[in-house]
Design a protein that fits this description.
mainly alpha, 22 helices, Sel1-like, Sel1_AlgK, TPR-like_helical_dom_sf
């Protein structure tokens, strides 16, 4: 592709010395307009005019690239750009055939975006193996978005064997070209010690590079390191600033994390009402943890009017989204009849769901249920087994309950709420 572009520019220079200069300039103009509207900044030769997909003015780009394709119907690059414009406009039906043609010709834009579409099932049937094949071709051609996406495929084992070393390799290749998402992803690999040695200093350095470009994931990830003081002195005030930057971009993790700091007055002045608003914004985007956090506020009446029914609704959404702490709390509301009638079946259902993931508070609460025969036949040994599993994880209340049942003592409740 780079050779073709060098050759094409060479022909243009030669043509400038020929009598037909006006015709040649007119022929080139549609291609240039299409490039200016739809090229990626990571394409060789288009670094200064390229843009991210979400920054494309789709109407302008589609019109320009349709004109360019009419002038050069066999140009894989123009097909890739036109497909990218359709993709940005949400028109997968028109984008896919163009991506197919452009990818078959080795166009890096098509290889990257269509590879992602196949991997995630975005507008096409999922085919992770083919997606990985296309991403590999784009990555090996040096295209940063394909390199970052191939890193993700290796990271999560999508379409090829999971390999953290290869994931880190491809994240690094894209990060070194200045791709902020890849910089953040590489930082996470250092933070977690996946494919590279665990190194919090290196993680923070890569996050800082992403932050310098205004990347929301970098802002959130660096903020979390600073909030927790991981590998460096804690700086909750800067963490709050970073979360706010991400939240202002609509990032649900930034919204949730800033909400947590505001709720608890960490690094900022406490403002539970503002926290509730941020949790709501993140919950509306489907973030289970934010749904759980907002449910807690509704249950306790902090920052919002107390509303057990709303808490139940949010806990259910969060639990269905995989937040097991929400399943624990939902089970407790049914067990205690708060916002609903006492319903042992529902209480056991949600508590068991969390216990199946080895959540220690859920295990403890199941022990309480079986010890007291709440909706089940009382069974001391089953209660002891649940208390034991929770105690083995260091959960003190379960250890106390276990000691009470296995030694001389009087019964006490084993319930607790997780926050």
């Amino acid at each position: 592709m780079a050779g073709w572009k060098r050759l094409r520019r060479g022909l243009l220079v030669i043509s400038l010395a020929m009598p037909a200069i006006g015709a040649v300039a007119a022929e080139e103009r549609p291609f240039d307009a299409c490039a200016a509207a739809a090229a990626s900044q990571f394409e060789t030769g288009f670094e200064d005019i390229g843009r991210d997909t979400w920054e494309i003015d789709t109407d302008t780009a589609i019109a320009a690239c349709m004109a360019a394709l009419e002038a050069e119907p066999n140009s894989a690059q123009v097909k890739g750009w036109l497909a990218r414009a359709y993709f940005a406009a949400g028109d997968r039906d028109k984008a896919v055939p163009l991506f197919e043609e452009a990818a078959a010709a080795g166009n890096v834009v098509a290889l990257a975006i269509y590879g992602d579409m196949l991997t995630t099932g975005d507008g096409v049937e999922v085919d992770m193996e083919r997606g990985a094949q296309l991403l590999t071709k784009g990555a090996e051609a040096g295209f940063a978005p394909a390199q970052n996406s191939l890193g993700l495929s290796y990271d999560f084992g999508e379409g090829l064997a999971q390999d953290y070393t290869q994931a880190a390799r491809w994240y690094r290749a894209a990060a070194e070209q200045g791709m902020s998402k890849a910089q953040s992803n590489l930082g996470l690999m250092y933070q977690e010690g996946l494919g590279v040695p665990r190194d919090y200093v290196a993680a923070a350095a890569w996050f800082e590079r992403a932050v310098a470009q205004g990347d929301a994931s970098g802002q959130v990830n660096l903020g979390k390191l600073l909030q927790d003081g991981t590998g460096q002195p804690a700086d909750p005030a800067r963490a709050a600033e970073l979360y706010r930057l991400a939240a202002d971009q609509g990032d649900m993790y930034g919204q949730n994390n800033l909400g947590f700091l505001l709720e608890n007055g960490i690094g900022v002045e406490a403002d539970v009402e503002a926290a509730a608003e941020l949790y709501q914004q993140a919950a509306d985007q489907g973030l289970a943890l934010a749904q759980h956090n907002l449910a807690l506020l509704y249950e306790d009446g902090r920052g919002v009017r107390q509303d057990y029914k709303r808490a139940i609704e949010l806990y259910r959404q969060a639990a269905e989204g995989g937040e097991m702490r929400a399943a624990v709390n939902l089970g407790l509301l049914y067990l205690e009849g708060l916002g609903t009638e006492v319903d042992y079946d529902e209480a056991i259902k949600w508590t068991q769901l969390a216990a199946d993931s080895d959540q220690p508070i859920a295990l403890n609460n199941l022990g309480h249920i079986y010890e007291n025969g709440l909706g089940v036949t009382a069974n001391r040994q089953t209660a002891i087994s649940y208390y034991q599993r929770a105690a083995d994880q260091g959960y003190q209340l379960a250890a106390d309950n276990l000691a009470r049942l296995t030694g001389p003592s009087t019964p006490s409740t084993g319930k607790t709420k997780t926050k």
